[in-house]
Structures are given as structure tokens and as C-alpha cells.
Design goal:
mainly alpha, 434 Repressor (Amino-terminal Domain), two-stranded antiparallel ribbon, 2 strands, 54% helix, globular, Lambda_DNA-bd_dom_sf, DNA binding, Cro/Cl family transcriptional regulator, Cro/C1-type_HTH
Length: 70
């Protein structure tokens, strides 16, 4: 999949643990893990907004497009 999710990178930069972010967002650690690993089929804008607020970042810091090689 050409969309890369960089939540782990932002967590490390902010010195925050996944558990703490999940609590702030009001989602389970399992659902956060699905987002982090890129296994999610989509993300709600309100969830993305909450992640950006919690990590003090922009959506482009979290989501990255990397074209697949042909």
C-alpha cells in the first residue's frame, strides 16, 4: 500500500507511549495498533485531527504517500 503511517515516528519525537496516545484519543490500544501498522482501511478526519492535536503535528507528518514500484 502506498500510504505509510508514521504515528510511531511522531510518538518517538514527542516521547509519548502508544498507551498514552490511545487514552488521549479515547480509542483502544488495539485500534491504535491497527492504525500504526497501516492495516486500517481508512481513518476518520476527527480521529486524524485528535492525533494531530495530541502530537502537535500536521496530517502530513503522520501520513506519507510512497508510490509503489511497477
Amino acid at each position: 500500500m502506498p500510504i505509510i503511517v508514521n504515528i510511531d515516528v511522531m510518538l518517538a519525537k514527542r516521547k509519548m507511549q502508544s498507551k498514552e496516545l490511545a487514552e488521549i484519543l479515547g480509542i483502544t490500544q488495539a485500534n491504535l495498533s491497527i492504525l500504526k501498522t497501516g492495516k486500517a482501511k481508512g481513518i476518520r478526519f476527527d480521529t486524524l485531527e485528535a492525533i494531530c492535536k495530541a502530537l502537535d503535528c500536521q496530517p502530513g507528518d503522520i501520513l506519507e504517500f510512497v508510490p509503489e514500484k511497477e
